[in-house]
Design a protein that fits this description.
Blueprint: E1 4-9, H1 20-23, E2 30-31, E3 34-35, H2 36-46, E4 51-56, H3 60-73, E5 77-82, H4 89-95, E6 105-110, E7 113-115, H5 119-127, E8 133-139, E9 147-151, E10 157-162, E11 171-180, H6 181-189, H7 195-199, E12 207-212, E13 216-218, H8 222-238, E14 248-251, H9 276-285, E15 289-295, H10 297-301, H11 306-321, E16 329-333, H12 356-365, E17 373-376, H13 379-387, E18 392-396, E19 414-416, H14 419-428
Helix pairs in contact: 4-6, 9-14
Length: about 425
């Protein structure tokens, strides 16, 4: 039986994903509410890989806490190799030459990619030929930005160039390799820095390309990361791994459901907007879950407390009860923002325009996001719904407004006067 180990390259700073990666290390950024690394762990377990090594650097304590969770499940033993100074992808191999001991082959994965690649199929392909290295390839939409491979009719890589000005194909390095144990030790002995620039050219003519025809996205940029949120919903639904059945309406609070009050912190400040109670009742009668999602950075700033917020929401619940209705769930993000004038950048995953609260609610309440709506009075509300792949987005004119911030052209949304008008729109689009 072939013994396979996995080396997970995860120590990058994630500079292009800042400010999100100021607070969470790149390999743990959430995708559809789960850490990116989760998806790779699932693949390793499915391929019967039992031992893996992961390099760490930025916010390493977060990864250590994650490793404890994974190891506690008993399906995969995941160890850390900490790098006080980043060693480069090849440098990690050089620092761990003995990792190939007691193994026949090593799977090397850059875990900052979001991919549906079948690791088991990749390993099977590697074992089908006699070259020492297999490179995972995908069809790149922008080949000039990637390492591009040229294959012969036996899938042997006969040419490879990083970021070519005139690409010979669209087959790009997907950040995954399988190497024989002896080849791993050979690469480690090179004492090189980068696999792409310093190592792979030495194996041209001695490595094969496994072309993955399914989904693969490099998570290196902010735009690709946010797109992956939407893609994940579609992918999980098609794979039968997203169990959400019911549609929901996600509601901002201030300026949407209740009157806008700056840093509202007391029950006596809660005043339902005209027609809000009746409109909410109409949604629930139409079998929509109604979920409040609200940013509450004053809690993070120490201006009021979680108990204060609970009192405010208790008063809101009482006022809604007078109209014979209620909210199905409340979600809030207490993180204090440093981007007070920017409502378009995801600083914290759970803070709108991040989609975290919506994904959390979807998992808790079995919500079908693609049949759901987001209603709010700010650009951050609309973008949160967009990033969560909500089927409909509605901007209401009863709150702060867009504040001079443009919603990207690809984000299609409706604009109406108020929450009751939004509900009428939803009812006509059922």
């Amino acid at each position: 039986m072939t013994r396979t180990k996995a080396l997970l390259l995860a120590a990058g700073l994630g500079t292009r994903l800042r400010p999100l990666t100021y607070h969470v290390t790149k390999c743990l950024v959430p995708i559809a509410g789960r850490p990116l690394l989760d998806y790779w762990v699932d693949q390793l377990v499915a391929a019967n890989i039992q031992d893996a090594l992961i390099n760490t650097h930025h916010l390493a304590d977060q990864v250590r806490a994650y490793l404890d969770q994974v190891n506690g499940r008993g399906l995969l033993h995941l160890e850390e190799t900490y790098e006080p100074t980043l060693l480069g992808s090849a440098g990690t191999l050089a620092a761990n030459p003995h990792f190939a001991d007691d193994a026949d082959e090593i799977l090397i994965i850059y875990v900052d990619n979001f991919s549906t690649v079948n690791v088991k199929d990749l390993l099977t392909f590697h074992r089908s030929h006699d070259d020492p290295l297999t490179m995972l390839l995908f069809h790149a939409p922008h080949p000039k930005a990637c390492g591009i491979a040229e294959l012969d009719d036996q899938d042997r890589i006969i040419g490879f160039q990083e970021k070519p000005q005139q690409p010979v194909s669209d087959l790009a390095n997907a950040g995954g390799y399988v190497v024989n144990a002896s080849t791993y030790r050979e690469i480690a002995a090179l004492q090189a820095f980068d696999l792409g620039f310093d190592v792979l050219p030495k194996y041209i003519g001695r490595m094969r390309g496994f072309v993955w025809e399914g989904y693969h996205r490099d998570m290196g940029t902010y735009a690709t990361y946010l797109q992956a949120q939407r893609d994940a919903v579609d992918l999980l639904q098609r794979a039968g791994k997203w169990t959400g059945q019911r549609p929901a309406v996600f509601l901002d609070r201030d300026g949407t459901l209740i009157e806008q009050v700056h840093y509202l912190s007391r029950p006596d400040q809660v005043k339902l907007l005209p027609g809000a109670g009746e409109a909410l009742q109409q949604l629930r009668q139409a079998d929509y879950l109604c979920v409040l999602v609200t940013n509450q950075s004053p809690i993070g700033q120490g201006l009021f407390t979680e108990d204060d917020l609970s009192e405010v929401h208790l008063e809101l619940t009482k006022q809604l009860a007078q109209h014979g209705t209620q909210l199905d769930a409340f979600y809030h993000c207490p993180s204090a923002t440093q981007l007070r004038k920017d409502r378009t950048t995801v600083e914290y995953y759970d803070r709108k325009p991040g989609p975290g609260m919506l994904f959390k609610a979807a998992q808790d309440l079995q919500i079908d996001l693609t049949r759901s709506w987001m209603i709010g009075d700010m650009v951050s509300d609309i973008l949160a719904g967009y990033h969560a792949h909500c089927g409909g987005l509605i901007f209401v004119e009863t709150g702060n407004g867009l504040e001079g911030q443009d919603i990207p052209a690809q984000v299609q949304f409706h604009k109406v006067t108020d929450f009751p008008a939004a509900v009428r729109l939803i009812m006509t689009n059922q």
